[in-house]
Amino acid sequence: MRSCSLLLLLGALLLSSALLEAAAQKDNLIKVDVKTGRRSPPPRGVRRSPPRAVRTPPAASPPVASPSPSPSPSPSPSLSPSPAAKPSPAPSPAAKSPSPAPAPVPVPSSPAANTTSPRPSPSPSPSPSPAAKPSPSPSPAAAPSPSPAPRPSPRPTTAPRAIRAMSVSTGGRFTCVWADGEVKCFGQNDYGQLGLGDTEFRGNQPGQLGQVLPVVDLGAGANVTQLSTGTSYSCALVKTSNSTTPVIKCWGGNSGGQLGLGDAVNRGDAPGTMGDALPAVDLGTGLTPLYVGAGGLHTCALLRQAATGLNVVKCWGVNYAGQLGLEDMDTRGDQPGQMGDNLPVVNLGSGLNVTQLSVGGEHSCAIVTDSAGKAHVKCWGSAEMGQVGYGDTTYRGDVNGTMGDNLPYVDLGTGLTPTRLVTGQYATCAFLEPASGAAAAGPPVVKCWGSADGGQLGTGDEERRGDGPDEMGDNLPALDLGSGLVPLDLALGLGHGCAVLANTSAPAASQRLVKCWGLNDYGELGLGDEVSRGSAPGQMGDDLPPVDLGAGLAAAAVSTNSYYSCAVLRPAAPASPVLKCWGENAAGQLGYGDENARGDEPGEMGAALPPVPITF
């Protein structure tokens, strides 16, 4: 009898296992290593559909009538269409971490704005289906949060002020906006990535933005000069009244030490963890931070080295793919004694000066100049999709002998000089200008390599570039976004990209426009449908329509992440810049007070898409 019972139990277990495996295959789940957080990419041509995750729903906030500037009214049925809630995508893989962006958008004829621009970065964060909210569940890897001091009270609600300059940074399913030295964040908040001392979502219910949304408290006298968002955390370059030089502060999820605080404790998810209680990242003596980039689960900083006068790079967080560039796979920043002077500088080669840094999901890239002043690109970390651009799938930075002078320059073609890098989860793009004296001098071009799933490379196919021989250099085509258009800004997400383009031959009101291409499962391209662009011939160039963001608004900057996009827009008349977002919205990351996607159906863009009611 006992044997029979055991056989029945074994049969039930086998059947259950088979059913689970079949369900996983049906949903094309991405495999996740619970120890490292690494997500294995899908095979070529297979769309990513990450598994759903349980989120902690926010407590209902009473609607508050907050004044908003005239260009940014609070959403209401008359201003914002409310399409039927569509099924939420599952959490996206680690987000992209963008490179330093152009200067924040100034208002015409307004006082001089802060010229140091914050810039977005990359990824997955647990989030629910808009249609059904699961019951609360504890945050994974939730360790006791330190509470050295009570959290300062939020600033009293006051009338909004005019904004001189603005930039936006999109995270996994949350968005942070920088304006004149201050930061506000909304969307998903499981790990405290909004920096508000709790885990309540903001932006998915009415009355949560505007003056009601607190400024992120980064300490007394804090002035944020640059911002980057990652998977489920954020980092900022901050000047405070307590320091004579800028410091880096990071908050949110910290399972891999990506906050750089010598532990794996989240910050920003409980009272007493922000403000002056949030420590600055210790990067060592004689180093001044110039830029910070948040990636999937790793962070890198560009630093000025006092001893040499050169710029160098330090990275911390998870390191399963060598993304820290330290020729091993050891995590840094999650234990005491790993940061400060104990954290090595990334060896990019002798005599090289780093002029620009961009941090991706599982890789990083830098522009370096040699002793002759010539600029080159070097990348390290994961190469599974060819994103480091060396014509193979061999990781760099994970074992001895792969960094320093052994790390080659990325071949981007003859007569071209790299001026800017942009990294996504599995792809990389470079802005290139004809070298001085080149015969075919002309406007800058953009070349992209890595994953082409959904057409993210914009090459009219889904063939990866950079993972095989003879794909780089002069064989790598330039991104075609249309005749007479010059790229000014660009962002890469999980499977799509967006660019701000200048059309100097157009009327002044339409000289700055946005085009998006790649995957479009949730309207992230902003074209009123769910049709991907860039994966077949005849979809790019002049055939790719611009995103309709409304009349009288000129695009100034763009940021993308897993399944959504945002753009900073400048009104024709002197007024504060405005923000518009579209795509997937399961956590309120679009900031419209609901969980409805925008841009996936006709009639949702243009004048029907209101400005996000973000005020300061």
UniProtKB/TrEMBL annotation:
Secretion signal, residue range per the UniProt entry: 1-24
InterPro entries the record matches: Ran_GTPase-activating, RCC1/BLIP-II, Reg_chr_condens
Biased composition (Pro residues): 59-92, 99-109, 119-157
Coiled-coil ranges (or none): none
RCC repeats: 181-240, 246-305, 311-370
KW Heme (keyword) present: no
Pfam families associated with the record: RCC1 (PF00415)
A single BP term in Gene Ontology: regulation of mitotic spindle assembly
Keyword terms, alphabetized: Signal
Region (Disordered): 33-160, 452-476
This protein's GO CC annotations: cytoplasm
Source superkingdom: Eukaryota
Descriptive protein name: Regulator of chromosome condensation
